[in-house]
Write a structure and sequence with these properties.
693 residues, alpha+beta, Alpha-Beta Plaits, five-stranded antiparallel sheet, three-stranded antiparallel sheet
Length: 693
Amino acid sequence: MTQQQYDELVRSVGQSVVQTLTEKGLVTQPSASPVVAKPIEVDEEALVARQVVKTLSEVPTVLGGYSEVSTELVQLWDRLDRTASGGRGPWAYLGLLAITAAAAPLAEAGIRRLTLAKRNVMAQQFATTGGLWRVAALALLDGFAVVAVWLVVHLALGAVFAKAGLQTQFAAIVLKSLVTWRTFMLLFRLYLRPDLAAVRIAPVTDESAYRLLRLFELAVLVAILAGSWVRVLVSPAAVSAAILTNSVAVLAIFIFVVFRARSDVCSWFLGLIDEDARKSGIKVALARHWHWIALPILIFLGLARAYDAVSDLFEVPDGAILTLNIIIGLLLAETLSSFIVRRHRASALARSGGPESGRLLPFLVRAVRATIWVVAAAVLVRTWAVDVLSLVDEQGWSEISRAWTTTVVTALLAYFAWEAVHFATERRSERPKPGASGQEAEAGQAPVNATRLETLAPILRVALGIVIVVTAALTILASLGICITPLIAGASVFGLAISFGSQTLVHDIVSGLFYLADDAFRVGEYIDGGKAKGTVEGFTLRSIRLRHQSGQIHTVPFGQLGQITNFSRDWSTLKVNLRLTRDTDLDKLRKVTKKVGLAMLEDPELKDDFLEPLKLQGVADIADTATVMRFKITVRPIRPAYIQREAMKRLIAAFKEAGIEFAGAAVAIPPIGGPSMGIAAAAAASTPATRAG
């Protein structure tokens, strides 16, 4: 009979016996509805007090573990002796381990020596021509040195210390700690670069870079040694005593490093703050007093490790180390993002005609930066709430995190969407200069007319921003379990009330949308709207702003704008009348005008403005003492007034050289009495002569 069959037999016999006894009245049949026990109220203050008393009572036990620490360290020498089994003795083993531990840094130094010339050349090239890829290539060259350390360590563990029991384990602890130390120092070296200031990521001086690298090297080495020697111990009492010792020693070293490096790190933080943030003063104050923020964090982490030494929560050291690593990682990520944006903007300004690349990379850096902060916060909250402090179990955390994950991801996506909208609608060219209208622009100060997308950008930015905020808010509220149906209904009713009560406002908005849809004007163009005229500087959903030639700003609602006359579209034809003398040679005048027009077409500063050259149209009028000649110029509507003035200046000079004269201001005055009186006077004067003849 199998175990399952035996269990089934026992169960059936038991049920039959209980049924027989119940029928005979020897056993009372259980009631159908069992009585639910009243939940016991827990006194949380008493529970905390008992936990504190229990923790304090463990302190003598932990302190007593130091004897076991000394005992295990003494026994370690005997445990490393494998001469009885044909292996190495402790002295030979430790000698090989010391040689390997020295060979790994020597390999790193050798690789760094071999690549020194190449690294110097790339640093000089980066200082002169830029190129962030050179910084990545330098980091790769430095990474080869740490790879050499890793290769030496793993070759030694696989060939020299393989299958040697405790010797292999001890060698793995020592050598892997060495690799960890050099990896951390590689990371700090890439940021500080004490020997290559041109590619230094951290905004510090050479002296600060050397000092910080040495202090960080000390802190990392102490932290790694503190974690390594605990793994050599076996008994729980010895491990607890070692952790308590580590918490005090590491905290003391870290506090020393914080106070020793406070001025250098302050300069580092100040270098990450842009000019706009410096004006507020908040970030500057935090940067100057960062050590008073770091000290409580370090003390808390040290107390957390000390608490682990007198309790059974062995997750506290891991949580403290993870928290410290995340804080350092966030600092390095902020420094790297600031360095990338700063250097890329500098190279974009140095290049001509490359503003687009200068805008895309900062947008991507901001997106990655926000993602890093969100992920770091989520990891820290889960580590301390679930793994360390056990405030929430795994099931409760999964229920909480489901809603909050949706909330955080929605907010992050909304931020990405807004950054994308801002990136797509941001003006790509220079803003029009106030007063540089299409009528009165001077040379070199021509207005830069916006494209249609750039003209619609403010409206699109506001509209898409409202859509993003409303959609994200509704999604977040729904993920938190809040019913959003009344909100949507209330918003609809409110929108109808606004539309009926603000007809003028709606009229202005709708008129503006149709103006923009018809592409009637763009930012930077000179228009005449009847009520006002000037250069379009911008607009809102309701009105447009026009800058007059004299400097005044006209704000006109779209509903009152009326007919639009745009002086800045396609082309502009200028016609000028000049008064020349009556005897001007027209063929000579035409040749001189053609010569001036061709010269202006060949001028590199003017040729792009012309659509048709300067030409003589012909006689416009014949005055008493002058012939009025008409000249015509067809140019782009960028700076027609300047082109006209330049053409007149060159024509005057050419006319003077060719002997063509302008008509004077003299007016022919007829004799008093008109022509008839002149004829009568002549007849009277001739009568005596006739008579005399």
